[in-house]
């Protein structure tokens, strides 16, 4: 990965250069800390005092503010009863900005589970969470509820066992499977992706992929003219140039999501370049040999999604309708449900797209707990499939 943090999702990550010894089966014999570039910080407002000494010029600080606490303090301030630490807290934010750091205040929402994703058609993440909850399938809602109750320690249960029992109840009530897996094989070919105003790409950039086999993405941070004159796009200055963003633009075009990691308050407009009003990605390819074009645009107040398949315009009246048409063409059910509690973006991010965080230290599958490993496996295929396979070995 990059030797420095490039997104808010990397806040708190420690970067290091690992020295491996090939004579000892590539065991790590030395770890050299790397501390370069700007950093991202994310914490609750009451932990802000402990942050001041770690912030440097150019850093980005996201402070999570509890909505109820914020409202209470505002009420006290209006009544002239401001608490003693209120002025100190405000002064700390001001001092961080004087250092040259970017400080952003966000209302802290409830932590989303791994099976919750950005609702297609949502203009901003501040829209009511109930709209997202209304779009959950019964199985997804059940899985989220059980995982939340178990994670918070409210009850001690076997999530997998409870999920299977709950699934049988739902199937009995519905009179049929509440989520029918797709049996059709889907062959997805990517021919070209074009991005503009997306992530680090202010100007339009095109990535041709048709009939190219394995593609190695290389990049270099700097001015285009200087790179062209130098004739070398380099290896050592390629980190943070946007290689991952360009690759994951494909996932964003298909699903409206670029990351399946849980986040309590990430904004859907974070993918827009700082110097652009809109982020646009156009994806061209073929689904089962039928050519398709997907064009997705995101702005602060604009959300457009167009879908052409085999020469026919499959664009719906709303972005949500269009997203359902895309999901259906990719082999998912029209409402985005799968045979597991996972969404289409989570299935694709575990089969076609593998971000750095999937193998990152402390978060990779090889270091996962038994419960998390089962949860990850259940997102790809129902647990009974894994159990049946295990019984044969």
UniProtKB/TrEMBL annotation:
GO terms for biological process: double-strand break repair. One of its GO terms (molecular function) is ATP hydrolysis activity. Signal peptide: none annotated. It comes from the Eukaryota. Residues 114-126 have a biased composition (Polar residues). Gene3D superfamilies: P-loop containing nucleotide triphosphate hydrolases (3.40.50.300). Residues 107-136 are annotated as: Disordered. Residues 193-297 form the Rad50/SbcC-type AAA domain. This is Rad50/SbcC-type AAA domain-containing protein.
